[in-house]
Amino acid sequence: MKKQQTPLDAAVEAVYLAFAHYRAPEGLLDVCTGCCMDAEVEREMHRLPLRQLTQEHFYQYNDSAKSEVQPADEIKYYLPRMLELLAQGARLHHSTEIYLDRMGRCKADAYSSDERDALLSYARAFFAQGLAQWEPDQKGLFQAEHAFSILLMWDYAGVPIQPLLDDWLADDREAATLNFVDSYYWEYWMDGGTITNAFAEAPFQAAMQAWLNDPGTKAAWAHKLLKLIEKGPPSDGRPACSKCGKTHYPLTERITTVFDAVAS
Q1: Cα(210)–Cα(86) distance, rounded to whole angstroms?
Q2: Comparing 38-42, 155-159, 231-235, which segment has the lowest mean pLDDT?
Q3: 3-state secondary structure string, the chain?
Q4: Which domain of life does the protein's organism represent (predicted)?
Q5: What is the largest CA-CA distance in the chain?
Q6: φ, ψ for residue 227 (rounded to 5)?
Q7: Are 251 and 180 in contact (CB under 8 A)?
Q8: Phi, psi at residue 207, to the nearest 5°?
Q9: Is 158 left (phi over 0), alpha (psi -120 to 50) or beta?
Q10: CA dihedral angle for residue 58, residue 208, residue 134, residue 83, rounded to 10 degrees
Q11: What are the pLDDT digits (tens) for 190-214?
Q12: Which of 51, 130, 162, 203 could be bridged to 142 by S-S, CB 3.0 to 4.6 A?
């Protein structure tokens, strides 16, 4: 039976279509082959068909020293395959937040309106599919990162995060609410009501603070959390502490803590 195409699958193909006219760079890529990227891997990125490039190619490419402003045509040639691999769960850098840093380093006018639309559609499909996955100890599309870190990844990519926040607020799936609980609890409440991710810069922090403290946002999440509390949350599935036999920071505690914060 043929696998049913998901919105993310369709978004990947739309990105390929939007960037189809770009060609592989002829000269040395914007990398350091002296110590950062293996010279043969760099040559393969010129020689191999785009869809044959692997996670290893892009991990070295993204991890390499690079120019502050990226060569747009080079980035836009590789973007479809990089995003396809991301949708398959590939690890593209040592830190998820900066997987797509090169994409965001192109000049502000580097992308056409059609290209920007394709990238935003991909980001929305990626975020929505990741929010549908919440199971203890399951990495899923977010690779065990909380959703706030995924939003920061898209911020680094230069993709506006407000449409993703709007989608999340409109998402009534239980998994999406549980993703909010864990993001809010671990990446915001536990840090004293601030976004303290080491990669988060002031504009991202301000945007998240504005969204999290907006009365409408808080009321919407309070309503979703109340429904979850009344229904009864799923099993946390986290193992008990080997020393004391208790489960620290259980899901029920995380939910009620976040509910109290957003309902205040």
Answers
A1: 29
A2: 231-235
A3: CCCCCCHHHHHHHHHHHHCCCCCCCCCCCCCCCCCCCCHHHHHHHHHCCHHHCCHHHHHHHHHCCCCCCCCHHHHHHHHHHHHHHHHCCCCCCCCHHHCCHHHHCCCCCCCCHHHHHHHHHHHHHHHHHHHCCCCCCCCCCCCCCCHHHHHHHHHHCCCCCHHHHHHHHHCCCHHHHHHHHHHHHHHCHHHCCCCCCCCCCHHHHHHHHHHHCCHHHHHHHHHHHHHHHHHCCCCCCCCCCCCCCCCCCCHHHHHHHHHHHHHC
A4: Bacteria
A5: 61
A6: -60, -40
A7: no
A8: -65, -40
A9: left
A10: -20
A11: 999 999 999 999 999 999 999 999 9
A12: 130
Tokens standing for residue 112: 């056409």
Unique residue bearing structure tokens 């043969």:
40
Domain locations in the chain as residue ranges = 1-149, 172-264
pLDDT in tens, 68-121: 999 999 999 999 999 999 999 999 999 999 999 999 999 989 999 999 999 999
Q: Tell which residue, 190, 193, 185, has the closest CA to residue 225.
A: 185
